Amino acid sequence: MIASVQPEINPQPAPFRLIQADGQPQFGVFDLPVTELGVADFDYRTAMDKPASGLARWAHYKQFQFVSVSHPDWILAAAIADIRYLCSGFAYFYQRSTASLTEFKLLQPLGRHSQMSASATAGVARLTGGNNSIRIEPCGYSWRLALQSKQLNADLLLSPGHIVEPLALCLPTGYNGWTYTQKHNALRVTGDIQLQQQPVAVTAALGGYDFSAGYMRRETSWRWGSLSGYSGSDKIGFNLAAGVNETGATENCCWVNDKRYLLPAVHFRFNRLKPDTPWQLVSQCGAVQLQFIPAAKRQERLNLGLLASNFRQYCGSWHGTITLSDGQQIHCIGQQGLAEDHFARW
Fold it and tell me: Known Pfam families for this protein (predicted)?
């Protein structure tokens, strides 16, 4: 039996509503997370500027949450995605020494046995099926992950340090949509993991989360890279992405000992037909020069006509450098992390 993790006392985010009085979202990169989305008040319109129907307002809104914990010897990851017609989730544990991946997944049509968080600072996202369950709960600036299955169980708390600087931004998506994203890497991890009923120590592990919601493109795709780890005694983390939030700003940023640094746009170079070959991530200005070497892959393909997904998430190691705006350099020398290539029609 895994003991429940109690969140520490963390400062609550200042009230901040995304949808403004005019029915439109506030756009930009924010210093603090959004505490209330206000989706019901969004003035959603068709491409011909007519008010969208109630069905369209419901069906076109998407939300997904993802939590990962990285250790030099292993990676734990879990996700819940609500695309209205379907709520899906997965969790896995990748063991580097044995190159093994233990996982379970959940699918619930029309969101049965599921719930999504009201915002990135409050509420609960959960998905259950049989004896398996995933629960992700924001607790102010901390995040709790609880997993239950026959082979993989966890109760973990991801907490920031004294400096709390998540990435939070909202940008226009397509002609009439928007996407709000909140992410934070290199978070301290406490709690318990059991793999095959054996305890796994979380010492030396760091974690990160991803909360994304909005009216996204009907067909969308993204490339993504993530790291939470140590460089000597320094905690480092980064989030690099291409494909969704790119209108006037990007999701690209780096954390060093909890302090956030924004990064420029990044090119992802890899070969989908040769998935085991290294990825190259570079910025035009040269500030980001990274290589990702895949070691394991979680893949899922689904083609139902109206709905389709080609999902590939890789566990592997990061190598190279990131040069920050103040001239400081971050060195990646094989720390464990993730990369992802995803197409979705939803």
Answer: DUF2804 (PF10974)
Buried b (16+ CB within 10 A) or exposed e, 75-112: bbbbbbbbbeebbbbbbbbbbbeeeeeeebbbebeeee
What single-letter amino acid sits at 96? R
CA distances from 84 to 43, 58, 117, 278 (A): 19, 7, 14, 35
User: For 215-229, what is the mean pLDDT?
Assistant: 96
For domain 28-345, the CATH architecture is Beta Barrel (2.40)
Cβ pair 246, 258 in contact under 8 A: no
As a whole number of angstroms, the distance between CA 139 and CA 137 comes to 6
Confidence (pTM): 0.94
Per-domain boundaries in the chain:
28-345
User: Which residue in 130, 131, 135, 159 sits closest to 147, CA to CA?
Assistant: 135
